[in-house]
Design a protein that fits this description.
GO terms for molecular function: ribosomal large subunit binding. Belongs to the RRF family. It holds the Pfam family RRF. Residues 24-186 form the Ribosome recycling factor domain. α3 (111-148) packs antiparallel against α4. A hairpin with a 2-residue loop joins β5 and β6. By secondary structure, this protein is an alpha+beta fold. The strands form 2 sheets. The chain has a 4-stranded antiparallel β-sheet, with helices on one face. It has a two-stranded antiparallel ribbon with strand order 1-2. It is 54% helix and 15% strand.
């Protein structure tokens, strides 16, 4: 058999691990840190036109001040639905409506809430680590198949080390990302 057929697709494994990091960053961006951010509304979906729709597809989201997010809802009939979705989202924000503009004042976080958000961030990071380890497991399965198909012991060891090195790199990225977010959350 040709060596190309026995190789592991490291680029695919790396792309999938990078996807886990991207998903983690998106989840962490939705965590409120006491500063206003349009990203905190990304997980919130509104019941609009018969389907669940992201808020940024029913209105313009702006951050005019460090402690304020505004949503200019395009369709006046959706204002109440957007308001309801925000209240039910668990963000802990009470919307204030002025016509088609919904204002979201971001309150200061107390110590207990900061610790709770840090725990949530840690859960998101653990999910990312699990996803990365699942990609590693897939890579190891590919190695077993390649070894059964005739890959040499030395080549198998080289690929094994490369997959493990990639895994360690991305687990380290998760840890650094989590540490940065937890510092940001705990900052008063």
């Amino acid at each position: 058999m040709a060596d190309e057929e026995l190789e592991i697709d490291i680029d695919d494994l790396e792309r999938r691990m990078e996807g886990a990091i991207g998903a983690l960053r998106t989840e962490l961006a939705s965590l409120r840190t006491g500063r206003a951010s349009a990203a905190m509304l990304e997980p919130v979906h509104v019941e609009a036109y018969g389907q669940r729709t992201p808020i940024n597809q029913v209105g313009t989201v702006n951050v005019p001040e460090p402690r304020m997010v505004t949503i200019n809802v395009w369709d006046k009939s959706l204002v109440n639905a957007v308001e309801k979705a925000i209240m039910e989202s668990g963000l802990g924000i009470n919307p204030q409506t002025n016509g088609t503009i919904i204002m979201l004042p971001i309150p200061e976080l107390n110590e207990e809430r900061r610790k709770e958000l840090a725990r949530v961030a840690a859960q998101y990071a653990e999910s990312a680590r699990v996803a990365i380890r699942n990609v590693r497991r897939d890579g190891m399965e590919q190695l077993k198949k390649a070894k059964a198909a005739g890959m040499s012991e030395d080549d198998n060891k080289i690929w094994h080390d490369e997959v493990q090195e990639l895994t360690d790199k991305y687990i380290g990225n998760v840890d650094k990302t989590l540490e940065t977010k937890q510092e940001e959350i705990m900052q008063v």
